[in-house]
Hints:
There is one protein chain. The two termini are 20 Å apart. Helix 5 packs antiparallel against helix 6. The chain is of the alpha/beta class and 199 residues long. Strand 5 and strand 6 form a beta hairpin. 43% of the residues lie in helices and 20% in strands. Guanosine-5'-monophosphate (5GP) is lined by residues 36, 40, 71, 73, 75, 80-82, 100-102, 105.
Amino acid sequence: MKKGSLFVVSAPAGCGKDTILNELFKRTDKAGYAVSATTRAPREGEVNGVHYHFLSRAEFERKIAEKEVLEYTEYCGNYYGTLQKSVNDLLERGKDAILKIEVEGAMNIKRQFPEACLVFILPPSWEVLEKRLRDRGTETEDKIIERTNQARREVKFAESYDYLIVNDEFSAAVDDLLAVLRAESLRRVRNDELLARFE
Length: 199
Ligand code: 5GP
């Protein structure tokens, strides 16, 4: 069985990455979400083992010490990390493993796995992103400014990514991501066994 590939998807808050990924997993069974671990509290509707493995700080630190974490970061006062097991379980079943992680984690994964494919999701413009954050109606003006500034810092990393997808029209963005997965699966380096048939 062909092993799956490693993908990282990053995007600033408000760019629609969760919605895009949820739809992607409905449209393909060739890719799966590598569930991260975090010490932040579950939000309403989040299920342990599905959205995250919710751990205490002590549990998280034990996993780091036992080298069960491929990369981790502290983001807004909480640990977030990619579990080796989450990734391996998918790759060994022949599925592409999708890591939904922030930019520092993405750079860390690329250093360890240069063949990993990094995808950055952009908003159509800064104006649209700010409008989307405002329209949520859940954030104070200070929080909106903080999130926009954070987004500007994150977008600086986009130049180190392999693919850029603009989430202008949601369904087209999902198509774009599916196209990336498909193109990557056709790479010669991932298909040496195919050429071996023609030796
Ligand atoms: P949230 O708390 O909104 O679920 O996630 C906050 C940020 O942490 C998001 O940018 C998310 O992509 C990132 N994140 C989630 N899991 C991981 C992980 O395992 N490693 C890293 N480096 N970042 C993560």
